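Dear all,

This email documents one entry for the complex benchmark we are building for the journal club exercise. For each entry we list the sequence lines for every component of the assembly. Then comes the predicted three-dimensional structure of the complex as a token string, followed by one or two observations. Please use this as the template for your own entries, and keep the labels exactly as they appear.
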Amino acid sequence: MPVPGDNLLEVENLRVSFGTEHGTAKVLDGVNLNIRPSEIMGLVGESGCGKSTLANAILGILADNARHQSGSIRFAGKDLLAMAQRRVESEVRGRSITFIPQDPFGSFNPLFPIGTQAMEVMKWKSPRRVAREKPGIAGLFSRYPRARRRADAAAVLQMLRTVQIARPEAAFGKLPHELSGGQRQRLMIALALLPQPQLVIADEPTTALDATIQMQILKLLKRLAKEREVSVLFTTHDLGIAYEICDRITVLYAGQEVETAPVDDFFRRPHHPYTVRLLESLPQPGRELREIGGQIPVLVDPPAGCRFHPRCSRATEQCRAERPAVTALGGGHHVRCYHPITGTGHP
Amino acid sequence: MNEAPLLRVERLSRHFPARGLLGWRIGDVRALDGVWFKVAPGETLGIVGESGCGKSTLGKTLAGIHRPDAGRIVFEGEDIAGRSASERGAVAPKLQYCYQDPGNSLDPRWTIRRSLNEPLIVHTALGAGDRDARIRDILQQVGLPPTHLDLYPHELSGGQQRRVGLARILTLHPRLVVLDEPTSGLDVSVQAAVLKLLRRLQQAFSLTYLFISHDLSVVRMMCDRVAVMYLGRIVEIASTEALFAGAKHPYTQSLLSAIPAIGGRRVTDTFALAGEPPDPVQLPSGCRFRTRCPRAAAMCAQTDPALRPIAGGQSAACLFA
């Protein structure tokens, strides 16, 4: 792994479990992840692999039945898990780490114009908000200082223009349902960037969109992230999209990270058997389809050691006993496997 | 297509009323607006397009779930356009529609056994023993163990639910199956298994597929011919090879250019199509793609181009194609 201190975000050995009626689901099992400044990191995996749980853990918005967190989440040098929740709320969440959801419609109040909702965000999360404005309950009754309000409104309009929303002044007064899906996702990107964050967590932000609109949104997000030197954690199940916008990719399988590599190296020389099989299951012209046999494990009773071992043709006793440590392959490529696939690999 | 087509669709239209304030009718959403195509026995015709282009409405209208406002649906030489599924009699079991999300189309309080029995009770005169034999046979064909008969839908994974959805249709021995987004919502590793199964079943039961999907890379693998829809019309139809090698309609070209090619050039560096589809209640005059089209000229606003043949079975609805 790179020298600590280089990274904006360092998740180390993170374990998160959820109490369910069937027992404790061990959703994240010692996950490591790091993101450098102004880098787009792709978090790739199939449904149920823990992508969203990891994203929520970083944001500190896990559900109430989440239990027993071990490990650390260091952001800009501070351990978020050790920090007082109130400080996380006022300084980190929504300020230096913001969020773009999968379904923007569910994130807006359907009854208020989007301008009102954008200003509500800015009242609390504006980069112009100074610390001595009253926090907490007392703050709820405090007024929105007029000068800041005016500056914030100008910033919102400017940002709507930046994300290419047609006629931003008119858009201010519209209700969420009056915008198209693509426009709503542009608006979400605007809201995520307005607090001038260091890290944006985008949770499958384009899954609900059509192919052509999806490309427009990805193009916009990539350009803005690079221009503003914002880091992005981009979760997706779509490897093609990860190829499009990520600088590096981490693969998650059943709550364990199995491989991390710079994007080109990742697709050219995948090493973990799961990554290789995942790439092989993509429909590609002139190649037979290959599914991955077996099923993803039940996380209430996951396999010991490497959680992929029941589906892996290379698995040995060692894989069943203990999870492999991180092996550095050079060039920032890391894999956690006793029997990695070497050679040229995937076409 | 030298043989007589199994299905011939002509001028098919289905409009939905668009209502404004107080429920007043303010116009029509022309979900299907004059659709023409033919399907040969044994082939797989892909229907692709973005959401709202009418591809699901097309599937449901063919299956008799929606009544068309105009046009003909000629299946095995018989026009069935005006008839709902229950009025189709002997034709109904032969033309089946497979729902997008079988998890929601199976009754959550019914066992798989009961769900699989229902279509046979409705459409056939088989006794309980014969029904059971047929169900077990089909269940094996779709790769599920007979023990699953006593499970409820929520006890199955997404991939298994799709298999049950397919089994439910196949018990009727259909000739044409409309597959509506058969792999949406599935992970790629499961998707590969479902696609392989669909191919195997097509061979085993000599099925003809109408394969509705928004995923062009899946369509490319599965289909013999592809029809591209935009706002209620087919704008291009061609053999899969011809379409991917040389799309003639600018919309098809944009759609193809939006597919990420792993290892190739980044689409985010090259993708050029701007704008979004227009409001379907207020379609632009002339060609409905002209508001987004990079090649649009003055004449595109005046003429609504019809689908016309270009070469080798490829047709496109564009004045410049």
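Observations: Chain B touches chain A at residues 50-51, 157, 187-193, 195-196, 214-218, 220-221, 244, 254-255, 258-263, 266-268, 271, 273-274, 276 (CB under 8 Å). The first helix of chain B runs from residue 55 to 62.
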